[in-house]
Specification:
The two termini are 87 Å apart. A hairpin with a 6-residue loop joins strand 4 and strand 5. The strands form three sheets. A four-stranded antiparallel β-sheet has the order 4-5-6-7. A two-stranded antiparallel ribbon has the order 1-2. Strands 3-8 form a two-stranded antiparallel sheet. 23% of the residues are buried. The chain is an alpha+beta fold. The chain has two domains: 186 residues, Orthogonal Bundle (Helix Hairpins), CATH 1.10.287; 135 residues, endopeptidase domain like (from Nostoc punctiforme) (endopeptidase fold (from Nostoc punctiforme)). Helix 2 runs antiparallel to helix 4. The protein is built from eight helices and eight strands. Helix content is 65%, strand content 7%.
Length: 443
């Protein structure tokens, strides 16, 4: 009786093996039945005609591909131009605010100088009135300065001398005071004139800054329009290319016929068999307890310094934050502003986020206060050749005039706020249009 369970187990095991063999056999039979039937045998003339049509269509696809590549290259150039114009508008906005502040300060100084000049003039008029009263009183009392009557009442030569000295002292002090005040008025008037001249210059600078901002906005609008036109052309070429590619696929299908279908099926079957073998190997490894794969540890870059790592940590903490033109300050993301073009079309003025230079302001907030314009940020630190750039340096794109900035992370990677519609991301360093120097603020 003890052998009963062992015999039953053996029977069940044999039945399971048989069932697996049957399933395998049925699977193999099913696979064989899926093979397509033999294709028809076309004539040589039919094959030659279909091949000629396919070759002609392939040539058309190649031509469209070249035209599309040229259009996309032009579109990339226009995108860079738009980015440049956006940064120029940013610079013009910064300059306009600075000119406004200078004009306001000059106006305050001019008002203060004018008030001082007016006060000096009032004091002079008061002194003049007092002097006139002194002279009038002296005349009425017979003591007019320089007249004989002023000395006739003297009782002795000593009294006469004393009276003359008294009159000279009084009149001299009044005249000296009056002369001093007149000199003060001249000085104050000169200050007033200089302040008014400074105000005129400041007003001129403010007008120039406002005109520059208007010109930058107009240039940006023109660049946006050109880019949109080129984008439309590229889309049209892309649509034409897809249409001809479909024609090419149909022509190639006619050339290949069922032979091509058979080849594709055989490729699929070979892939399926490889996948089944891989699954079987994985199942065998799992059953033997060796199925777990060791996870590879990712290398970690050595820090270049606590300050550099702090800057990078701040920038990396904003990964995924929305791009907003004009957004970002030392405290974090802020609402974007209107630019009259691309940013407005993406609604950046209603988004909370960063633009490229705003992200740098936030990242380096603990190191240095940066202006909200990548062109000024390029000159905010020490220049180092790109061959010597290291983790924590700022990278810039032009050429010539700066329109973009990113933070280098090392290993060919950078973090950036790329463009309207995007978000803060890590990307490989792009060397097209990159400036020959990086800017280093730390170390």
């Amino acid at each position: 009786m003890p052998k009963g369970p062992t015999v039953g187990a053996g029977l069940r095991k044999g039945a399971a093996v048989g069932a697996l063999a049957l399933v395998a056999l049925l699977g193999a039979t099913g696979t064989g039945a899926a093979v397509p039937p033999p294709p028809p045998n076309p004539s040589d003339s039919e094959l030659e005609a279909s091949r000629g049509a396919a070759d002609s269509t392939a040539d058309e696809v190649g031509e469209l591909t070249n035209r599309l590549a040229e259009a996309e290259a032009r579109l990339a150039d226009l995108q860079n131009d738009v980015a440049l114009k956006m940064e120029e508008a940013n610079r013009a906005l910064v300059d306009m605010h600075a000119a406004q502040d200078a004009a306001d300060q000059a106006e305050r100084e001019a008002n203060a100088a004018r008030a001082e000049a007016d006060g000096a003039a009032a004091a002079i008029e008061s002194a003049r009135a007092q002097l006139d009263q002194f002279v009038s009183s002296s005349y009425q009392q017979g003591s007019t300065i320089g007249s004989v009557g002023a000395y006739l009442g003297s009782e002795s030569p000593k009294d006469l001398l004393a009276r003359a000295q008294l009159l000279d002292a009084v009149s001299g002090s009044q005249l000296d005071a009056l002369e001093g005040m007149q000199q003060a008025r001249v000085e104050k008037s000169n200050k007033d004139a200089a302040a008014r001249k400074a105000l005129e210059v400041a007003e001129q600078r403010r007008t120039e800054a406002e005109n520059a901002k208007a010109a930058a906005d107009a240039a940006q609008a023109a660049a946006v329009q050109a880019r949109e036109g080129q984008a439309q052309r590229a889309n049209e070429l892309e649509a034409d290319k897809r249409s001809v590619e479909r024609q090419l696929y149909a022509a190639q299908s006619r050339v290949d016929g069922l032979e091509g279908q058979r080849q594709r099926y055989e490729d699929w079957l070979a892939q399926k068999e490889r996948e089944e073998r891989q699954r079987a190997q994985q199942a065998a490894m799992s059953s033997s307890g060796n199925g777990g794969a060791a996870q590879e540890s990712r290398p970690v870059s050595a820090p270049a310094g606590a300050s550099v790592e702090s800057v990078i940590s701040r920038a990396m903490s904003q990964l995924g934050v929305t791009y907003a033109w004009g957004g970002g300050n030392a405290s974090g993301p802020t609402r974007g502003i209107r630019d009259g073009g691309v940013a407005d079309s993406y609604g950046d003025y209603n988004k909370i986020g960063f633009d490229c230079s705003g992200l740098m302001i936030y990242a380096f907030a603990g190191v240095k206060s940066l202006p909200h314009y990548s062109g000024y940020q390029y000159n905010s630190g020490r220049k180092v050749p790109l061959s010597q750039m290291r983790r924590g340096d700022m990278l810039f794109w032009g050429p010539g005039r700066i329109h973009h900035v990113a933070l280098y992370l090392g290993d060919g990677q950078m973090i950036e706020a790329p463009y309207s519609g995007g978000s803060v991301r890590v990307a490989p360093v792009r060397y097209g249009g990159i400036m020959p120097y990086a800017t280093r603020l730390i170390g």
